[in-house]
Amino acid sequence: MKTPGRRWGALLPLLIALPVLAVPGVAQAENARSCFDDSAAITVEEKRLTATLPSGGPAVGPELVRLAGFDKLVSDFTSRLCATKTTPRAEKLAETAGDGLWRTAVDRAQGRRPGLGSIDKADDRPLYWARLRMSKALRQWTPRFPLSASARAGLLKTFDLGARGLDDSRFPLGPSTRRVLVSGFDPFTLNGAGVRIANPSGAAALHLDGKVIQTPTGPALVQAVSFPVVWSYFDTGIVEAAYGQALKGRFRRPELIMTISQGRPGQFDIERWAGAWRGGSPDNLDESVRGQVPPARGWPQPDVQFIETTLPYEKMLAAPAGAYQVRYNQAFCVWPDSGHPGAGTAVCRTDAPKPGEIAASGGGGNYLSNESMYRSNRLRTGLGLTGVAGGHLHTPVLGTPADPAALTDAGFEARRVAISSQIVSLLTAALGGTATKPATPSTGSTGSAARADVLAIPGTTL
Question: Model confidence over 294-312: pLDDT tens digits?
């Protein structure tokens, strides 16, 4: 399904990229160079395209793009961009390039492009870096016709929507197929040696998009999207746009929504609570934001501090054993003085929030993973969809290749496959029935144990 960019409203401050490679032929190469202004401002993310490992070698991002065989997509895009003569044609190019990049990444991850590239097919990083190279090209493009700043921003948005799967997540009509919508995230903490980091939730999104899972009560179609690790994107409603477009369709509505992100080492966490607080950890633009999660314009959203999962966690906990332990995390934190949120030391517990308490953290921390659960389920409850299961799954930490100079190795690839496979198993278990149960009351532990559960999640600062 192609969703025109304007239907998503003011969605995001776009920061993604399609690269600038030369095309065969001297005349074409000179033309490509002449249509880009290398001095034009680019984003912090795009600047990392030149980053190498501490040990040296080629720039990591472009090398991952090359190893996956995505460099041809990049060079074709930049060549066509230089030849584009009107704004409507540029809009069409941005749409088709974004959609094509996402679809190629999904097809490669799911084994439908066996001859494309040499790096592990499940690797999510080539998509991330190819997107950045292409957005950088859009940002530095000097067209042959006048192009306003707002028109360029529109091109970036259109491209980004497609390259994240947000243009391709519509479900079929009718009751014959069950429906599930999930989301993953880009890699993050990419500064310095972190430039080679991957994100297993992003890999899972590629593994799951368009996949049909067989359940005891019939096949379930999974659609997946990928979110940026950028506060400002969330400010402009990317989560609400992604989940809202699906939830508002009465005859195409998913029965289960699940946000997915990377969590703590060695285990999966099904998070019970999402909180309405941003802890301020730096995002992929090296920007920090602290305070209450703001509303997203245009969507019904109740003013609540905590939202509880409705995922059938007991069924998920009973799923066949996989490589990792699965845990139901009931921790959350509140500010000690509700009149002065953000001041003092947060109090962490595992019972349930009390009326009037102000969230300092959900069980999944107070970074963008927590916020993805909070926003998607704030929307779900605002739409009155109590029958739709919703919540968040934190994956184990993927880690990095053992050799600090390597971009991949067998262990790194095996862990990623094990995480994605176990996510499928957990989704299958969740779809084993339609009933959901309220959370089992906790004994209400407080202090170090509950606090440790929250602090173990990346991005939590209390």
Answer: 999 999 989 999 999 999 9
